[in-house]
Specification:
Length: about 170
């Protein structure tokens, strides 16, 4: 599947909209609710069994996804602000909560993500932060971006979760 060319068209969620999707342990989409399908611009058939990363906007710093995967592999949930890319090149911002679904033996079965509209206040902080992280990533790699994020959080005296949840 060819990646769409990003455009300046932004789509926004309503306050009561929720996007829900599930992926297998490799990040392939196994379920998407109607809002997810509609907003993405893809058909259900185009989404199922595809990597969730087909929605990854190039403005997203890779360090955020590194953190996401680390948390999930440790069996922990994560909240993250994410800019997603639609099939037609438009984009939309979400506050994502991604959790691990465990089977009755306690083994990870899949990942479940619920996304909602981020606050304007949060995006005022996140957009320039992600621009800085991405610039750092482009010049010094993901490790440089990771160091910068840690430095910013240390300067604020907060852990990642406290910072993210405090913005909403």
């Amino acid at each position: 599947m060819r990646r769409p060319q990003p455009t300046a068209t932004e789509r926004t969620l309503h306050e009561d909209d929720f996007i829900v999707s599930k992926t297998d342990l490799k990040g392939r989409i196994i379920y998407g609710n109607k809002m997810f399908i509609k907003l993405s611009g893809y058909s259900e058939e185009e989404l199922l069994n595809k990597p969730h990363s087909i929605l990854r906007h190039p403005d997203m710093p890779k360090v955020i996804f590194k953190l996401l995967w680390e948390r999930l592999h440790d069996g922990k949930e994560i909240f993250a602000y994410v800019k997603n890319l639609c099939k037609d090149g438009a984009y939309y911002w979400v506050l994502a909560n991604v959790t691990v679904t465990f089977d009755i033996q306690g083994n990870a079965r899949d990942y479940h993500s619920v996304r909602r509209k981020p606050s304007a206040r949060a995006l005022e902080v996140i957009k320039p932060l992600y621009e800085k992280l991405l610039a750092e990533e482009r010049s010094g790699g993901m490790e440089a971006s990771e160091r910068l994020l840690k430095k910013i959080l240390d300067e604020k005296g907060v852990e990642y979760d406290e910072f993210i949840l405090g913005l909403q």
